[in-house]
Amino acid sequence: MHAYRSQTCADLTKANVGETVRLSGWVHRIRDHGGVLFIDLRDTYGMTQLLCDPDSPVFAEVEKLRSEWCVRIDGEVKARDASLVNPKLPTGEIEVFIRDMEVLGAAAELPLMVFGEQEYPEETRLRYRYLDLRRDKMQANMHLRSDLVASLRKRMWDKGFREYQTPIITASSPEGARDFLVPSRLHPGKFYALPQAPQQFKQLIMVSGFDKYFQIAPCFRDEDPRADRSPTDFYQLDLEMSFVEQQDVFDTIQPVMQGVFEEFGGGKKVDSEWPQISYRDAALWYGSDKPDLRNPIKMQDCSEHFRGSGFAIFAKLLEQEGTEVRAIPAPTGGSRKFCDRMNAFAQKEGLPGMGYIFWRDQGDGMEAAGPLAKNIGPERTEAIRQQLGLGVGDAAFFLGGKPKAFESVAGRARNVIGEELGLTDKDRFAFCWIVDFPIYEKDEESGKIDFEHNPFSMPQGGLEALNGDPLKVLGYQYDLACNGYELVSGAIRNHKPEIMFKAFEIAGYGKDEVEKRFGGMVNAFQYGAPPHGGCAAGIDRMVMLLAEEQNIREVIMFPMNQRAEDLMMNAPSEPLAEQLMELNLRVIPQD
Q: What's the whole-model pTM score?
């Protein structure tokens, strides 16, 4: 017999009754029924109930067992009484009577319990992550993650892609976040960087003549943490293709993403129609470039109804250039109580409040109520109702100003309204492509033009488009949103040096600077670069959605905390003096 086990803790069934078996695992739970001990033995595959009484030659040793001791047992498989069968377990028809036992690893007093669903502070869970990971939910999350990655790989190979690895130590490259720098011992005073993404390398792979590339790529960004973002590193399905247009990339990645969500989505509906929404429309309708389409609410511009109206706040506001008033329809939200709650939400968001109108039945007809309705009068109120398609029992909320100043708050308000009124379909994965991103933006204070989004995207219209108003230039750049999260980002790349130099020139970067910062890629593009494009899908966020978790740390095996600290390994840590000398570095103490 094997030194540790003949079967796993998920294998045994009624067919094994009478056999002598060997199992190894962790003591999950112990129950003492008047001198008869029942022990749930757990491994990563499942659970088996063990039985021990004074007839066992190792009863005295078994009595000493405590939770999370790692043990090996030999015993005889017995059938449970019919009344004691546990239909929830694959091994629920049997139990194993212990004949022999070896303690493989005793456990000290536990800082957190593995059995049960107790809540523990995140600091405790991360400091003792190896114990936290033993819990059923965490085991399931990590299995899901592993299975999803395997499925992604298979689907990409089936589509004719090959997996290639790109460097982890490379040059610093601006990708929208801070680099992690690595000092060079051989080149004092110089630094490598950990890649924020394999962006330049995967484009160079296309220039090298490899038609379809993918990689399960680690990416490193020194970012502020959020619930849906790791502050240090993350993994993405990275892919690039040659001789493609935007739609080709969409047609390639959709069946991959749709397939894994159908495979691991637990039976939830996965939308097969993925609308393409312009960045501008997404901001107007949803207040976000990663909208949750499970919520049917679409915001609308209602400025004309308030221009010159009796509601002075909005009327005066609209006299300023670049201002708007937008409405958030709220079907079934037509009560003063709900409107007051949403007003309180706006105040928590730092606004004085939100204007609102709600429509109620007055017996002889419909009446518009609320402060706004009184100020703008019945004609304007009725025009708003008809534009929004609302009726009795419905409401609308209004925000005004320069759109960039209030869009994000409006988007959050839309989400809250959808949740509170039960309009958001929770049993569904709703995808949409966000397209037509503007390449440039203007700083309102300095007037300087800079890149708003990916500087390596091909401008729609090519070189000719760059000779007009920069703020009207759109890029072949796209994101895929699902249920309010950005899952995929990508672009058709700017592969022509003359267009690239012009694009950077508009943002104030001279040719010399572009060649210095992106010399490898710019040089390569002078030697027959093919048109190419691709995207990257965030694996951590995909698993978070599929596991129905609210925090990305629940699906990462060894995550950092919110301060980018590894409490288990004590990182970051102070370097030794010898290490600093070898690297020709000196740490300046902070006051």
A: 0.93
